Amino acid sequence: MPTSPRPRADREGLAASKPERSPGREVSSAKEPSSPSLPRLKAGPLSAPGRIDAASIVASGPQYNAGKNDEEAPTAGEILRKNAIPLAASFLINLTAIIVLGIVSFSKPQRHIVMIQASVEKPPESTGLDTQSMFAPSDPIDVIDIRPLAKLPDLPKKVDVPINAMGIGPQVANIALPSDIPTAALAGRGQIKGDLLNKYQGSRATEEAVEMGLLWLANHQLPSGLWSLTGDQQGGKGKYSRGAEIENQEAATAMALLAFFGAGQTPKNGLHAKVIDKGVKALLRLQDAKGVFFHGSQSQDLLYTQALCTMAACELLALDPSNSDLRTPCEKAVAFCLESQSSLGGWKYTPRVDADVSVTGWMLMALQSAKNAKLDVPQKVFDDIGKFLDETARGPLTPQMLIDPTTPPAAGSPPPGSRYAYMVGDNHDAVMTAEGLLCRMYLGWTPDDERLRNGCEYLLSEELPAWEARDVYYWYYGTQLMFHMEGTFWQRWNGVLRDMLVKRQEKAGAERGSWNPMGTGQGDAEGADRWSLLHRGGRLYVTAFSVYMLEVYYRHLPLYSELKKQIQAKQAAAGKL
């Protein structure tokens, strides 16, 4: 994933900053092999292969005595005739040498591959867990194909289907998850999945797209069980086109696993159970004694990656709470997240140093997953996040506000708290507003809050998803935000995004099931994902995030829905809460 999602510049400014590309130019995650330099041949009578320079021949030929008449001096033609055989032999020898050197130099082009190992300096300390025996043994993963889906409506325009709180969805084959989903937030991934797809305007087409996306991920798992962000492995299932330029296998693995978990699949359940089992084992092996997952050299990736990996591990524990072997790794991961919170109340790149809304949002999602898994997260942590968001809640900054931050907003300005900036003192933008408002939802704001509704209206009126301005990072947070708002907020957002994602998925070829991160129109820039255009995203990143958005119908229950309350009440009565 991108390591530093800064606020989105206006489209004109962003366009001006995009690297120029020729239409149709292919972008590769691996650098092109540099042409090796051929050894220089000593200067001689040949100025270039295959060319004879008469002046050079005269200058280097037998010298005549200056005292003789000019008529006795040998001519250039005579010298050429006398030296024809030696020159021809020299020419052939040099030409042969050049050809041989060329074959040796170019027969094995070298590719510059950036690989992040589990540790830069030393292997992670053992967690004391036997992760090899945590799940069923991993067998070699075979390439598999799409299974037929149960019948779903094509693309419903208007749906009003009542939900049976714990009933069986009639429209799709539901997956029975371990323990019947003990947390209401994740109940949509189980027995009511089909009902939720129908109610919230998912479709057969969206589910087929999810299945194809998961299949692409399964078929590109590395032999180690991890996934690659660059896709530049030489051979094997991990290789794919248009990856990121910087490797981060820990983050890539967490992204892939979250896509499988979002569909309700676990190491014990689902079409890709063996793939997931292998991936979970590999990810847990990377965790060190302090609970840290990331051991690469890019300092900006540390806390982003920690949040993603913590979120994946805790989400699996919430889906399968009977797996006691997961609890200790999750507790250690959460502990490191908590220790890393800065005095500002949020997180940035370095533990306990500074804060931005981007990293803070991911950390809040990870801690929310920990709560779903029944892990202890102190309330003060969430209170401090709220205080940090208060400091970054900014409307449009006027010149006077830049001079004096205490200047009150002008009359008619958006209510304070409805817009968010990347860092304290920055101007607001749509990306951070979507992430900030979603955080506010999890921190307790209700859907009738004027600030929340005003911020959503701003995003819908000015920043609806558009392919020519693709930014799956923004779309990911915007999709969750509008889904939890429900009603017309969700209908307006989903009506644009759903069909666009389904239409743009790769339908054939080696990358079938994935999404092209670069341009799909006239030239690379048109339709290119924002972070992939800057070489920080890539095919796996874009594919995983696109799958998350198409799983939104059941990935989490809407925060304020009556259905969630019904399930919570039923589980409380059964003693599961």
Strand order of the main beta sheet, please?
Answer: 1-2
Helix percentage:
40-55%
Enter the CATH topology name of the largest domain: Glycosyltransferase
Order of helices and strands: HEEHHHHHHHHHHHHHHHHHHHH
Given the C-alpha coordinates, what overall shape results?
Answer: globular
Count of runs of 4 or more consecutive helical residues:
21
Q: Which CATH architecture of the largest domain would you pick?
A: Alpha/alpha barrel
Query: Based on helices, strands and strand pairing, what is the structural class?
Result: mainly alpha
List the helices and strands and how they pair.
Elements (H helix, E strand, L loop, with lengths): L10 H7 L28 E3 L2 E2 L1 H7 L15 H7 L1 H23 L86 H7 L4 H15 L30 H14 L10 H14 L15 H18 L7 H14 L16 H16 L6 H14 L6 H5 L26 H13 L7 H13 L9 H14 L1 H18 L25 H4 L5 H12 L1 H4 L6 H12 L4
Antiparallel strand pairs: 1-2
Characterize the structure shown:
The protein has 577 residues and is an all-alpha fold. The protein folds into two domains: 46-60 and 73-106; 114-397 and 427-573, Glycosyltransferase. The protein has helices at 11-17, 54-60, 76-82, 84-106, 193-199, 204-218, 249-262, 273-286, 302-319, 327-340, 357-372, 379-392, 399-403, 430-442, 450-462, 472-485, 487-504, 530-533, 539-550, 552-555, 562-573; strands at 46-48, 51-52. The protein has a two-stranded antiparallel sheet with strand order 1-2. A hairpin with a 2-residue loop joins strand 1 and strand 2. It is globular and about 105 Å long. Residues 6-72 and 102-181 have low confidence and may be disordered.
